[in-house]
Design goal:
single chain, mainly alpha, 13 helices
Length: 323
């Protein structure tokens, strides 16, 4: 049971006076700041500072494109990469912020190189090169902050490559199963890699898995909805529902359980089911008001059932009472 609810229930059961209730809350430290706040707040501020500093350097170079000579631009970006990587190597207390700043500066350097020399490379190649060359940095640092940034870059490269190979699948009206693979398969593969790989190798926690699954669910749901409302073959819609059901069963197992991923899968499945019902009922053009009312009621029931199921699974896995 939640500690605050337990304290209030205890005060009500024993008919404590207001002063005694306040004393009980003080003893339980309900009004005190979380004990982990002082530990995580400086680290979070340092990570935020690294992100803002890296983006600031890239934007400053872009804003002064004409004022700075080419050599000065290259020197600034290369010096930033070198200094931050040296800092990550030598300063253990600030290793994560320095490494993240170097990661961002490395991407800015690749972008500047491609913009300056116009090599003719596709955007996905620059992102793929960025991900490939910074992979040793992530393996050396072994922290979620670096892995989350790397996942964003790697999956952006995969999405851009899929768009090139399938002639712009994102904007196509007719979508086949093969064309949609690039929008969710790489993300799903990364999620299972981070989940199953030994933590001693990667040092990755839950967030790279969760971010990869968010990419996969968004891609899968988007392609499924577009297939459902297309004028051609809509066979991808039931396939996507089966895939989401299989993923939900997988992430409900004890070794792979993740309530965040299960919640995202539940939301995606709810969206697909409601869209399927809307396409079925509103396409008949009979009583649209009644159809909308039915869709709303079923949506609420689906959401309530999904939440109840996820809470039940969490209780079974962790033996906790979730209020």
């Amino acid at each position: 049971m939640n500690l605050r609810v337990a304290i209030l229930a205890l005060a009500d059961r024993h008919n404590l006076t207001p002063d005694a209730g306040r004393r009980l809350k003080q003893l339980a430290a309900l009004d005190a700041p979380p004990p982990s706040l002082l530990r995580y707040l400086p680290f979070g501020m340092a990570v935020l500072a690294a992100i803002l500093a890296g983006l600031g350097i890239v934007f400053w170079v872009a804003a002064n494109w004409e004022a700075l000579p080419r050599t000065a631009r290259f020197a600034l970006l290369e010096a930033t990469v070198l200094v931050t990587l040296l800092g990550a190597w030598r300063v253990a207390a600030a290793r994560i912020p320095f490494a993240l700043l170097g990661f961002i500066a490395c991407g800015g350097l690749f972008a500047y190189f491609g913009q300056t020399y116009q090599t003719g490379a596709d955007p996905w190649q620059l992102f793929a090169l960025w991900a490939a060359l910074t992979l040793p940095l992530c393996l050396a640092v072994r922290h979620d902050v670096l892995w989350v940034a790397w996942v964003v870059v790697a999956l952006t490269a995969a999405q851009l490559l899929a768009q090139v190979r399938s002639n712009g699948w994102w904007w196509n009206t007719e979508i086949s199963l093969a064309d949609s693979l690039g929008s969710w398969v790489p993300a799903m593969a990364l999620a299972f890699f981070f989940k199953l790989a030994p933590s001693a190798w990667t040092g990755a926690g839950a967030w790279p898995v969760r971010l990869s699954m968010i990419y996969a669910i968004i891609g899968l749901a988007t392609m499924s909805v577009r297939s459902l409302f297309s004028t051609g073959d809509s066979s991808f819609y039931p396939v996507s529902l089966l895939i989401m059901a299989g993923l939900a069963i997988t992430f409900s197992r004890r070794g792979l359980f993740d309530i965040f991923v299960l919640s995202a899968l539940g939301l995606g499945a709810n969206v697909l089911l409601v869209c399927g019902m809307a396409q079925l009922l509103l396409g008949v053009r009979s009583n649209e008001i009644g159809a909308l009312l039915l869709i709303g009621c079923v949506s609420a029931a689906l959401l309530a059932g999904t939440v109840k199921l996820i809470v039940h699974l969490a209780r079974v896995q962790h033996g906790e009472h979730i209020v």
